[in-house]
Amino acid sequence: MLVARVLILVLRRGLRALEESRERYVWSKVVLYIVWFVAFVAVLAVFARDLSNVVLAGGLIGFGITFVLQRPILSFAAWLWLTSRHLYRAGDRV
Fold first, then answer.
1. Could you tell me the CA-to-CA distances from 45 to 31, 52, 55, 63, 76 in Å, in that order?
2. Which of 9, 17, 30, 53 has its CA 20 to 30 A from that of 83?
3. Does residue 67 lie in a domain region?
4. Mean pLDDT value of segment 42-61
5. Are residues 34 and 68 both part of a single domain?
6. What would the 3-class secondary structure string for the chain be?
7. 54 and 82, same domain (yes or no)
């Protein structure tokens, strides 16, 4: 975890060179999540001797969540497509 914190500090200093604060914020969050994910996998690899069972459990949980949330995910994807294409405007009758 100490290595993750040091890596985060180094990358944040490098991200300060970016001009826009919004872009800097987004990149810092992306880097933060990637570092924590790598640290989590490293810790998991140390404590779990056989990662195949962990990967299988994660896949099954992901499949279950996707199956249960199929309708909301599809509705959200359709909303994203409709708003990105600007097919409807305020005041249009649908």
1. 21, 10, 11, 22, 35
2. 30
3. yes
4. 84
5. no
6. CHHHHHHHHHHHHHHCCCCCHHHHHHHHHHHHHHHHHHHHHHHHHHHCCCHHHHHHHHHHHHHHHHHHCHHHHHHHHHHHHHHHHCCCCCCCCC
7. yes
Please report whether residue 28 resides in a domain. yes
pLDDT digits (tens, 9 = 90+) for 15-49: 666 666 777 788 778 888 888 888 888 888 887 77
Task: Pick the more confident residue, 80 or 10.
Answer: 80
**Containing structural domain, residue 64:** 50-89
On whether the CB atoms of residues 22 and 16 are closer than 8 A, the answer is: no
What pLDDT, on a 0 to 100 scale, did the predictor assign at position 84?
87
